[in-house]
Amino acid sequence: MNPLYLLQINNGSEIMLVVVKYMFVLAGFLYLLYAILVTKQVSIMSKTVETTNSTQNKVLAFVHLVIAILILIYYLLVL
Amino acid sequence: MATKMAGTTLAEKDRLRRHVDEYSEVMRKEVPCKRHNSAFLPKPKRLTIDIQAESEQIVLVLRQHVITQTKSVFIVVALLLLPLLFSATQIFSFLPLTYRFGSMMGWYLFTAGFSLECYLKWFYRVFIVTDERIIDVDFNSMIYKDVSTTKIDKIEDITAITSGFFSSIFDYGTVIIQTAGTKQELEFEDIPQPAKVTALLNEMILEEELEKFEGRVN
Hints:
The structure holds two protein chains of two kinds.
Chain A (H helix, E strand, L loop, with lengths): L11 H37 E2 L3 H24 L2
Helix pairs in contact in A: 1-2
Chain B lengths: L1 H5 L3 H7 L3 H4 L1 H4 L11 E3 L5 E2 L8 E5 L7 H20 L7 H28 L1 E5 L2 E9 L2 E8 L3 E7 L3 H6 L1 E8 L5 E8 L1 H21 L4
Antiparallel strand pairs in B: 1-3, 3-4, 4-5, 5-6, 7-8, 8-9
Helix pairs in contact in B: 5-6
C-alpha cells in the first residue's frame, strides 16, 4: 500500500478509514512490544526456574510473537 | 563428636546430610513427580532453580491451587465469546470486511496474550522448599519479579490459614512463615494441602536443629 494515496482522499468516509487503519497499526505495534516483552520474560523465568515445560513455554511465547508480527503486517499492508 | 565434626570437609558434610525421606514422614509417603504442570510437586525430577547450590535438594515445589485460576478461565471464555455477540448485533457492519476481519484477529490475539499471561503468571509463581531454604518466586506481572529466600533454621513461626467454602472443599490455603531474616514474613498463598506443607516445614526445622546439634551443618 502506497501511503501517498492519502493525497487522493475524496470524502469523509475515506478519512475515517485511514484514521481507523492507523489506529489498528498503532495498536498492533504496541501489542508487538508487549509480545516481545513476554518472550523475553519467559526466557528469563525459564532460567530462574528450569522445568521440563520450559521449552514448551518458550515455544508458546515465540508463536505468540510471530502471530503478533503477522497481524501487524496485515494491518500495514492489507487494511 | 563436635571436635571430630570441626575437621570435617565440605564433601564429608554433604555425605552426612540425610535425604529428606530419612527424616520426613510427610515426604516418605510422596512419590517423586516427573510432570511439572501441577500445583503440588513433591521431590520433583529435573527441576532446578538458578540460585540452587550444587548439593541442595529440592524437596517440594508449590504453586497456587488450580481452582484459584477459575476467574481467569471465565474471563478468557467471555473474551472468546464477545466477538460472536458483536457479529450478531452487526455493530461494526459499517466497516469493510478486511477491517472487521482484522479487528477479529486482533481481538483473538489479545485473548491469546491474556491467556498466556495468566498461565505464565501461575506457572512461574512458585514456592520452593529445599533441604536448606525456602524460596518464594513472585511473578506478579510481566515486568515484576521478586525472589525471596530464607534458611530453614531462621524460621520462627509457621501459620496455616484455610478459610472459605472453596478452600475447605478443595483443600488449599495460605501458609505464613515468620522468619528472623531481613524479610520477616514469607507467604505461600492459596497453595494445596497447607497442613501437609506445615508438617513438612516443622520436620525440616527439627532436622536443622539436629544437624546443628550433631555438628553436621555446613
